[in-house]
């Protein structure tokens, strides 16, 4: 029986979104943002040589069609990237009005977001007094710090020492529908941070805030503050069955790698494997060998986005792509007859762009195991329908299989 491996390269967008002018980074519309193309261009021009050198080389993604997809989605030039394409590729357009992780993943899983998320204003305070009063009361703290839009790595440097003195959690947000809580793992305590987030999450979900995110960190004023890998997301539960439910309801097994379990609030998921991207790749390789017939393995590789996209680090993003490309080259021979591997993304995060937020972009859909060809332009939800079709189970979403 066929298996499917659906792998999200978080934020690896390819430009070309028709509604990019409705999304912004620091008042600049996202029109023209193109994560992959701008990385390729910067590398070719020698502008991304930190820890690497020269033009970016992605031979495996190229042969699966990433260059062809970028050319089909945008006018951007792509120096090099003219290798023979042996995979099956498409350009996917998002319908949901959010350029965030849950919107992208839910729609890839067959559920365009049926509501408007709540976003906090980029003002001080970002959270109004009645909300702060509720949060401090039910969360059992005497106050909060932050209360603004901020990059997470920066705000812990600014407020880490004061947080240690006062015991007030650092609460901040971004252009996404998120309520983030940074707290020191030792002085505030990791389990206390998780409990705090878990307690306030239902109230924020009620307001249609997509995620409450625990952001633990360590360090002190002298050495500086560093986030740990113990981030935890408390996301709204999808209001309808999604791909993982369809697969599970058909009696099949669903493996989640990385933050997929968090994004879908564990709906339809049998087992979760976590770690940094390197560890996730080990899990993916092991599951390529061990996943049972008829199963779905759904993975998210977040470091493109969290370590490089938001930090506007072009060299780092290029290094991550080159590493990923080499790993996928080693994964392909592990695919069995009848298996389908899909590499895709959830939104863009152009590291050459203004601001530090995601960019509205189309995403590549690169398929291995179904021969060579292209479906041209498709919808995000078509990915779920295609996975269902390949697993020979009913699709319950609005998408159509492109295979
Ligand atoms: O700056 P940090 O804390 O990494 O926040 C980023 O991570 C959040 C969730 O992925 C996004 O909303 C973005 O703002
Ligand atoms: Mn994402
Ligand atoms: Mn992000």
From TrEMBL:
Cofactor descriptive note: Binds 2 manganese ions.
Entry cofactors: Mn(2+)
Protein EC: 5.4.2.7
Taxonomy, superkingdom: Bacteria
UniProt-listed InterPro entries: Alkaline_phosphatase_core_sf, DeoB, Metalloenzyme, Phosphopentomutase_DeoB_cap_sf
Entry binding sites for Mn(2+) 2: 305, 310, 358
Main localization (coarse): cytoplasm
Keyword field: Cytoplasm, Isomerase, Manganese, Metal-binding
Keyword Metal-binding: yes
Residues that bind Mn(2+) 1: 10, 346-347
Pfam families: Metalloenzyme
Root EC class: isomerase
Compartmental location: Cytoplasm
Entry's Gene Ontology molecular function annotations: phosphopentomutase activity
Protein family membership: Belongs to the phosphopentomutase family.
Protein name as it appears in the record: Phosphopentomutase
Organism from which the protein derives: Cognatishimia coralii
Lineage: Bacteria, Pseudomonadati, Pseudomonadota, Alphaproteobacteria, Rhodobacterales
């Amino acid at each position: 029986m066929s298996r499917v491996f659906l792998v999200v390269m978080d934020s690896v967008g390819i430009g070309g979104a028709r509604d990019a002018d409705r999304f912004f980074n620091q008042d600049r519309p996202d029109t023209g943002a193109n994560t992959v193309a701008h990385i390729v261009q910067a590398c070719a021009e020698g502008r991304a040589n930190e820890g690497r050198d020269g033009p970016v080389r992605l031979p495996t993604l190229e042969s699966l069609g990433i260059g062809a997809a970028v050319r089909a989605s945008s006018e951007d030039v792509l120096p090099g990237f003219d290798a023979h394409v042996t995979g099956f590729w498409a350009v996917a357009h998002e319908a949901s009005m959010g350029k965030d992780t849950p919107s992208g993943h839910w729609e890839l899983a067959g559920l365009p977001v049926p509501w408007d998320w709540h976003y906090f204003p980029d003002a001080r305070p970002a959270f109004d007094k009645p909300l702060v009063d509720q949060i401090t009361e039910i969360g059992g703290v005497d106050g909060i710090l932050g209360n603004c839009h901020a990059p997470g790595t920066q705000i812990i440097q600014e407020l880490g020492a004061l947080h240690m003195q006062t015991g007030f959690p650092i609460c901040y947000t971004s252009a996404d529908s998120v309520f983030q809580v940074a707290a020191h793992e030792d002085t505030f305590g990791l389990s206390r941070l998780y409990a705090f987030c878990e307690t306030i999450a239902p109230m924020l979900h009620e307001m249609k805030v997509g995620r409450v995110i625990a952001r633990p960190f360590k360090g002190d004023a002298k050495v500086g503050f560093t986030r740990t890998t113990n981030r935890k997301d408390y996301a709204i539960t999808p209001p309808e069955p999604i791909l993982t439910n369809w697969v599970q309801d058909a009696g099949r097994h669903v493996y989640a790698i990385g933050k997929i379990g968090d994004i879908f609030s564990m709906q339809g998921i049998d087992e979760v494997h976590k770690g940094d991207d390197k560890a996730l790749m080990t899990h993916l390789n092991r599951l390529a060998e061990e996943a049972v017939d008829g199963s779905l393995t759904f993975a998210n590789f977040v470091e493109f986005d969290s370590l490089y996209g938001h930090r506007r680090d072009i060299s780092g993003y290029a290094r991550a792509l080159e590493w990923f490309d080499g790993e996928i080259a080693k994964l392909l021979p592990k695919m069995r007859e009848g298996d389908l591997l899909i590499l895709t993304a959830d939104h863009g995060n152009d590291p050459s762009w203004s601001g530090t937020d995601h960019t509205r972009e189309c995403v590549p859909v690169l398929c291995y195991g179904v021969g060579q060809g292209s479906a041209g332009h498709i919808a995000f939800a078509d990915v779920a329908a295609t996975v269902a079709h390949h697993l020979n189970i009913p699709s319950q979403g609005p998408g159509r299989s492109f295979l």
